[in-house]
Structures are given as structure tokens and as C-alpha cells.
Amino acid sequence: MLYVTERCIADAVPDDVPARSPARGEEADLRELTNRAVEGDQNAIESLLGSVRPMVVRYCRARLGRAGGYYHIADDVAQEVCIAVLYALPRYRDMGRPFTSFVFGIAAHKVADAVRGAVRAAVPTEYLPDGPDDRPGPEETVVRVSEAERARALLYRLPEHQRELVLLRVVAGMSAEETGNVLGMSAGAVRVAQHRALARLRTMASEEMDA
Fold first, then answer.
1. Structure confidence by residue, pLDDT tens digits, 125-142
2. What DSSP line would sit under 25-87, residue for residue?
């Protein structure tokens, strides 16, 4: 039986990219690092990007998945996010929100652009099939051999707002406050919504086993 836990969901993305939001003490260091980076300190810029990149990679991999068994597309999007953050640094202003919230706002837009691009590329405008394509899609061809893979499949059955919240909290490792800043919610509302989303995942897993 599949027991849907936060660890199970987090394991849906490989462990070679750690998922951890900065601890309280580290948040102050990250803010100082961000201030120096905004002022043009090259060493600070490199350190800042190195700090946020693992979370960005995990987020993009969780949202975009694999293609042909690899994460090339997701990793390319993560690189685009880091480049966008780099170019946005001179215009960044500390408005009391964690810098990671700013980063994930950019990441969410880049992922959405990638999804729209994939949809457009899937059906060329010069060719429209006469009927539905009955061939199995990429997700259908993946053999779900682990609980993590099954948890990921269930995750993508959640409504988009719940899925995004779980991805930010569990996969990307953001705090409730950071997630709330990205999604426009209070930290308390994030915790309540996360509890409901995980409960819904457990219900779906139970129904799948009983079917």
C-alpha cells in the first residue's frame, strides 16, 4: 500500500539536488548576501546563485518531469531562471519578503512558459490530425516501480493551486512564509492548505488501492 508522506513526495525528485529552505540564521546571511549582490559584488552574486540554484532545479524538475528518462528540459529551464535572477538583481528591492520568494516567482513564470511552449510544439500548426492520437503519452509509458513515482502521479491529480503549494513546500523546501509570499497567502493559510492537500493525496491513494 502507498502511504503518502511528505518524504515520499520529496523523493519523487532525485536526491542529487538537496531540498532545503534556509534556516532562520541562514536567512539573515542570505539577506546580507543578497544586498551585496544587488550592489554588484561578483563573489556575492556567485554565492547567491549557488545558494538558490538547488531549490530552483528541484522545483523545475518536479513541475516539468523527465523527457526520455532525463531532466534536460527542466534543467534548462532552471538555468534560464538563474539567468533571469541574475539580470533582475540590479532592480531587486528588499520589501520585507524573503529573496527565495522573489526567485520562485520568476521560476513559476518560466515553468509556465515552458509548459505553453511544449503544448504548442506538440501539435504543429501546419498539421492537425484527423482524429485523436491514441498513442500513449510520455507519462503513460513510465513504469511506476516505486512509491515516489506513484506519489508524483497522484500529486498531478491535485488541483493546480494545491499542487503548486505542495511542490513549493515539500519539493522545493520553502517555508510556509516563503510559500505564502509566492502564492499570496498567509503562512497559516499555507499550513492549512498543505494539510488538506496531503489529506486529499492520502484519500486518492486509498481509493486507488481499493479500485
1. 444 444 454 544 444 433
2. HHHHHHHHHHHHHHTT-HHHHHHHHHHHHHHHHHHHHHHH--BTTB-HHHHHHHHHHHHHHHH
Q: What's the pLDDT tens digit per position in 134-177?
A: 544 444 433 333 466 677 778 888 898 888 888 888 777 778 88
The topology (CATH level 3) of 7-122+144-210 is Arc Repressor Mutant, subunit A (1.10.10)
Structural contact between residues 104 and 182, judged by C-beta atoms closer than 8 angstroms: yes
Bridge partner residues of 67 (DSSP): 70
State the Rg of the chain over Cα: 19
What is the widest separation between alpha-carbon atoms in the chain? 60
Query: Count of residues for the chain?
Result: 211
Buried b / exposed e over 66-103, threshold 16 CB at 10 Å, is eeeeebebbbebbebbbeebeeebeeeeeeeebbbbbb
Query: Is the model's pLDDT at 13 over the cut of 80?
Result: no
Residue-wise pLDDT for 37-66, tens only, equals 999 999 999 999 998 898 888 888 878 876
All structural domains of the chain with their residue ranges: 7-122+144-210
CA separation for the pair 191, 186 (Å, rounded) = 9
Taking 60 as the threshold, does the pLDDT of residue 2 lie above it?
no
In the three-class reduction of DSSP (H, G, I as helix; E, B as strand; rest coil), residue 134 is classed as coil
Nearest CA among 41, 40, 117 for reference residue 80:
117
Q: How far does the chain reach from its first CA to its final CA, in angstroms? A: 12
Joined grid coordinates for residue 71: 531532466
